[in-house]
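Replying to the earlier thread about multi-chain prediction with a worked example.

Input:
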Amino acid sequence: MLTAENITAGYRHPVITDISLTVHPGQTVGVAGPSGSGKSTLARVLALLHKPFSGTVRIDGTPVTRYRHRAPRALRTRIGVLFQQPRLSVDPRMTLRQAIAEPLRATRSPDRVDELADLVMLTADLLGRRAHEVSDGQLQRACLARALTLRPAFLICDEMTTMLDASTTAALVGVIRDYQHATGAGVLAISHDTALLDRWADHTLLLPGRRRTDSRTDPPHTSTVE
Amino acid sequence: MVTELVLDRVRVRFTLPGATVAAVDDVSLSLRPGECLALVGESGCGKTVLANALLGFLPGNAETAGTATLRGDGPELDLLTATDRELATTVRGRRIGLVPQSPASHLTPVRTARAQIEEAIRVHRSPHTADAVAARAGLSPEDIDRYPHQLSGGMAQRVANALALVGDPWLLVADEPTTGLDRHLVDSLIEEFRRMVTAGHAVLLITHDLAAAQRVADRVAVMYAGRVIEIGPARKVLETPLHPYSKGLGNALPDRAFTPIPGQPPLLTDLPAGCSFAPRCDRVAPICAERPALTDDEHAVACHRPC
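Result:
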């Protein structure tokens, strides 16, 4: 179980205030909200990439006390992360094969790149290419394979499908669902696309929008519901 | 003289060491003022390359064939053979405006929106004032006194639209303008585009967002592996598609069947000789080994066995 209790986090000023949520094994929790509502900040906190001002993240009951590179590896590797822009998430010098194998190399685990590539439907020819030689969709497939490399118990998808066309979106959500069925992993799916979350998530948490300069196009403020 | 853009068998190839990438192959279409044409398809199908070809933004290893003729509002010009100087001084911003992807990062962060609009007015020797240009894009004079970081995504988009409109181009090319915007920003952007079309502009909208295409476009062209495989009125193409690929794209939407098209797009370096969709198609027949031609109808399709 991945839980966030009363998380307040941000950069100089808080972006999210007093947010709590729970992702049970096998469950898919959606997070929606307008731009600037703190969806990505919440994702970074739960991925142990950003230390909150207050509140506690627990992974299967163990409270997280250290974040980023100080987070203990045993906790860090329980969580896989997928970001919006696959181009910014892959070292351009690496082939897709090397990129997928990176977590294996870091943890000195046996090679299972071919098995993972199969899962996300990447061909051997594509595995030999570098990021600039493949499309966004193909690169995001590689990022998904990399996120699943160490068999995480939780997968955090931060706007994973924004750069993708409808068919690739449906294919990657299908891969994630199969992985959940096989392993009982919990998924946190962050997206501004409510049509997608209606279809993908078991239930969706709506983050309230902040007041911005563009008051005319702002949606009405919504309350946090679980 | 009519104002129009006519693409006739446009082809773009890139030469790489040991391979040729056929990014755009035999694309013919036309666009007139007061019309929005959406170009949809999976990433890597050649949509962006086609847009870049029209603006002369192709890299040095690109070879083009065919013609892209721009008529009206100036001398007739083939965009594919025009020199960079001709494009820079007479076409870009003046006859064709570009609405960039992610407008917020396209603006200079250290200058106000007004300063950037005024610079464009100076460069284009435009007779308009910054306030008038801003008003056309739905911005008030106070709005454009802000710096880019003080603008929301929707306002930054309007500033980008205003910049594209400074030189009074009749044609706007928008490359994936809705990517990363949330639903209400997409809605307001679509409204902006509709407004510009009503005001007599033409919009070439390049997108993978079928829902957005359906709401803004008059006509939709579906691209697959560098070719236009279906083109016609937006409603017909998206609701009663003829090509199995267009149908598959529709069925992949989360509010429809949410099922992916099996397989992946072919490599543009190694296209099959016949129909390039045949390896993924459930209606494939022996005749598909021959390349299907696009029919000559209002709702045209390039398929031997249309749905």
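The longest strand of chain A covers residues 14-23.

Feel free to reuse this layout for your own posts.
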